[in-house]
Amino acid sequence: MDAELKQFIGKLDTLDFKKMYNDNFFWTWDKTDDELAAVFTVADALRHLRENNISTRIFDSGLGISIFRDNSTRTRFSFASACNLLGLTPQDLDEKKSQIAHGETVRETANMVSFMADVIGIRDDMYIGKGHTYQKTVADAVEKGYRDGILEQKPTLVNLQCDVDHPTQCMADMEEVIHYFGGVENLKGKKLVMSWAYSPSYGKPLSVPQGVIGLMTRFGMDVVLAHPDGYDVMPETEEIARKNAAKSGGSFTKTNNMAEAFEGADIVYPKSWAPFAMMETRTNLYGEGDFEGIDRLEKQMLEHNKEYMDWCCTEKLMKTTNNGKALYLHCLPADIEGVSCERGEVEAPVFNAALDTLYKEASYKPYIIAAMIFLAKEKNPQAALEKLAARNMPRFFC
Amino acid sequence: MDAELKQFIGKLDTLDFKKMYNDNFFWTWDKTDDELAAVFTVADALRHLRENNISTRIFDSGLGISIFRDNSTRTRFSFASACNLLGLTPQDLDEKKSQIAHGETVRETANMVSFMADVIGIRDDMYIGKGHTYQKTVADAVEKGYRDGILEQKPTLVNLQCDVDHPTQCMADMEEVIHYFGGVENLKGKKLVMSWAYSPSYGKPLSVPQGVIGLMTRFGMDVVLAHPDGYDVMPETEEIARKNAAKSGGSFTKTNNMAEAFEGADIVYPKSWAPFAMMETRTNLYGEGDFEGIDRLEKQMLEHNKEYMDWCCTEKLMKTTNNGKALYLHCLPADIEGVSCERGEVEAPVFNAALDTLYKEASYKPYIIAAMIFLAKEKNPQAALEKLAARNMPRFFC
Amino acid sequence: MDAELKQFIGKLDTLDFKKMYNDNFFWTWDKTDDELAAVFTVADALRHLRENNISTRIFDSGLGISIFRDNSTRTRFSFASACNLLGLTPQDLDEKKSQIAHGETVRETANMVSFMADVIGIRDDMYIGKGHTYQKTVADAVEKGYRDGILEQKPTLVNLQCDVDHPTQCMADMEEVIHYFGGVENLKGKKLVMSWAYSPSYGKPLSVPQGVIGLMTRFGMDVVLAHPDGYDVMPETEEIARKNAAKSGGSFTKTNNMAEAFEGADIVYPKSWAPFAMMETRTNLYGEGDFEGIDRLEKQMLEHNKEYMDWCCTEKLMKTTNNGKALYLHCLPADIEGVSCERGEVEAPVFNAALDTLYKEASYKPYIIAAMIFLAKEKNPQAALEKLAARNMPRFFC
Fold it and tell me: Per UniProt, which keywords does this protein have (chains A, B, C) (predicted)?
């Protein structure tokens, strides 16, 4: 076993993450600091093994089920890649091709697709109050199915984005931050700005800004949430951010002034989202089946957005950050001025200068997902990593 | 090798199923009693190996093709699970994405997708006289392709539901019955009711009731087919049921009285279907391209159904069964009163009380499909099972 | 190692194909004669191993991404089969389910789906000047991603049909020709006719006739391109054909007379395509977003086609070929008179007589694709083949 892998295993030995075994991953704030550190460490270890052409297949067969209730490219492929990396065959439940319309219940479907499923990944971020509830229902159903002896194994649920959090995204973002600054120990006192930015497109989910403030306040950084008046996120997640900051020795503050937020920042995450209050109205309209009302509301949101077109991550703003070179984060795809839209979240030169770190940031996602699965499946992850290294099966033969 | 596996192999040694090698699986009544017993036994053996974390991958590579001409959740995932369990990669032929519209023939398509296919599963249950014919055409085409040296292996066809039979469903149902009553030897004299039940939804296929009476009359049970006047199934399948019952020492009777049927029953299978005569008319309209006519007919069917709203599996009816606790079977999804519809096939308390056995029933399907493939591929299934046990490759590593 | 495999390896030892390592496959005319010979040889070697139940899985995990911007059956399944044969999991990027509509750029998407991708196959043949450009953009993006350390491996691009060439099809066609005539050495002086034929269907891509004349002029054959006045292909590809013919000691000629072309032919490839000039107009209309104009143009094309209904591969014409039995090639599906259309590309008796060779021709495609991937991935393909034979892992176990 090489020295680097030994280090990862040594790191895991210092952490307590016993409760992750056979558990699900809904929100980062459900997890302890040690548990999150375990995810980062296993992600790095799996990447290290793959880069050294050592297979990390812990499954000889088995399915990884995905359910996407919203379009997706990178999360879809990240999930498929993570499953494949561990030996699971990705299988998408396309609700349009299913009999759900014929009266299946969520609980029933969850069990029916899970007879050979080791993991279920769900993206359901469209309606406030719905996404997490749906994921929880699925997880409870298969948990019960497992306990009742219907399922031979308990599929782990991985939240691929709900209405509240987007943990695989934010953990990948965070891993980029950690590697960029050379370790968690260097983050204390860094200023990170989660800022709203103008977008001409549809009302984007709140789960990214909420996930970012819920996660990134845990590392002693000074986290600033900036948005125009009225573009609040869910108050519960602000509360979590506040508590995290207090506990970690950092801070969590809010401002309606983008320029003030960017001043001296080390990390910026400028991104559009829809106001929470409007998202709640939208959910109510959905509950009433008022799809015309939803259309009207979305048009109204876009009109409303237009009042804040100046909330753009410009070259000028970037110059005001620490040394003029804050790390620019985005979950992608971004609304780039002059590329995908006339006015948008970011100026093209800012975006283009950041391409390498942006793509690197995205590249962690498959490993983060794989690490979440690995920690839920392996009772002794350190031993499992050792055994994989000892088995030494090549990922690519010859 | 453990004792349980030894028992399965011992059981297989007593059966004659040589003809299943390299053959297809269309209808249960094509198969001898020994052949069906072999499917049940191999299904149990594969499940036993998997539960003991022993890989049952007999394929290192190869595709399992599925063609779904009707929506599906459980059959789709059961087929994918079965393929995965044996090492095949599921690959769906989505006819909308294919060039079939560009003038391919069935025979051509069948060969074109089969160069590396070891199995083809087809669901085509929409039109009387069409589904089986299509499956037979595909099977004949690849058989010829194999004989002519175009295909290196002969893909086995597995009927995932046609207009006549639904063998993977009914075999899974039957395996639940066998396990529930502790063995085939305990079924003699049991009363099983295949009953029509009211549904407010579309005209459901006949293949389940037909498959049930065609299969379950082979075990010495007293099988009763109950339906309102006019809701007959295909006469050929009734004929098969009659012959089976005579041969097995059981009985096959019909009634238009649901209450009478349930009286003292050990097993009940209440489920909606469309009247055969109307399904034939529907096929003719389809042949004439009269889609408006089909719409009209379907509305008419639903209106007609409404006359029989009292055909519901109620708590009251269930109390009249043997000891008031008949085994409740359903292929799912069911039309549950107050859950998926106002009036439907079953009352919610009856359905909910049966959830565990219902899900268990469904859980056999992947193994039944895998067993059908296994028996078509392995020349000596007993030896193959022994070798899998000896290879002792873990399904889940560490 | 058996004698036949030894021969394949011996053949490879005589060829120079070093540059294929880590490279893409866009057009056959990018490749040297040795490189094409290597593809044919590796394809045969992989087929030989599979036929002898020896696994050719060189990947323990990894994805094979496909992007189909046009419908496809055989290419879709050929690609999936090739990936599966080598151990990669096929994963389709369905652009409708992706966030491309949300403003992703091609470069971004290419990287986002490629974190664990070893190969990307693309079909994009709808618009002149677009398909190849798109493929090149994707290949450049992942090449850069690999160089910048974002991707751990460089995905190889395989052209599954562009606006210019259809190399996996034409190489499969060519392999059928080689095997049919017992080796490349027997092709000198053979007359091959790539002929336009009437089709009542949509404006078919030019990539097949272009690919055929660009490839098949390299083997010393007398290649004739026959089409009605105005149905020209891209002039660049004719230029390539001309140069190839001169170099190989064969010839490349053109005619507007189908009967003259067929006279004494050894191989005929009668197939419809749209006139290049009209395809260019179509691209311009597309650029202008004039979809009504495109519809109008397509109707005009079909009207125009009707003037050449007599361009059909009839029994009578076939009798005028060498000994009346020229090898009939087609990429499938064909427009068969009296089967898929009233008047079309070929008479049913001609097509039916050729079924076996036609299907055989198609059966090479998965192996051609697999060989392209193999040569791009294995630094020393001969050693890799030897090691696969020595590993002797069964494709099918027991």
Answer: Transferase
